[in-house]
Amino acid sequence: MRGPETPLSQVIPFKPGSGRRRAWQRMLSGRRLDLLDPSPLDIEIEDIAHGLARVARWNGQTSGPHIFSVAQHSLLVDAVARTRTPRLDRSLRLAVLLHDAPEYVIGDMISPFKAVIGDAYKAVEARLLTAIHIRFGLPVELARDVTRMIKAADAGAAYLEATRLAGFSDAEARRFFGAPPVLAASAERQYLGPWSAETAQARYLKRFSELAKP
Question: Would the N or C end of the chain have less CB density within 10 A of its end CB?
Fold first, then answer.
């Protein structure tokens, strides 16, 4: 899944004491992803899966022997979306899976803190998501109805996580996330028991491979 290596001249240098700050993240693949100007060529699905499988939802305040990772959350959102919109095009299902992909670089900042810091976070997140969409052949901007569908599935997944794992009452979760989604009990058991990082990473990559087939 690799493209041409990025020239070192494009990397923002960092010299201690120089006043210039490093704006890139080094990935295990060897890529250097510039957060201020992310290139699609520096994005690898293996890096995304590895990172998301190790980023905790709810700041880690969930029950279970493992964190509930963003990778596992993304697969739960995919399952909720499939239930709500069973005939959704495969490429748009890929957009569902990747909806939180920027968090492999910037982490999963909880909503209360996003409200505190304002638009700066959103701008970085939007640039990263644009680069990710270009990298994997998705539209830079999704249709409004698709965006609404993803947000609804995301809120439904958040309701389930909040009530099953994060200690929210039903009334609290309904106030913040809306009504619970319709999801089979077997699917709840499958997606709401926190997985190890290795399992979450493998399952995320497997689902990506299913959706990214030509």
Answer: C
- Range 21-212 classified under CATH 3.40.50.150: no
Residue 112's pLDDT band (cuts 50, 70, 90)? low
Q: Band of the pLDDT at 96, cuts 50, 70, 90?
A: very high
Q: List the one residue out of 51, 81, 202 whose CA is nearest residue 146.
A: 81
Query: What is d(CA 48, CA 104) in angstroms, rounded to the nearest whole number?
Result: 5
Residue ranges per structural domain of the chain: 21-212
pTM score: 0.86
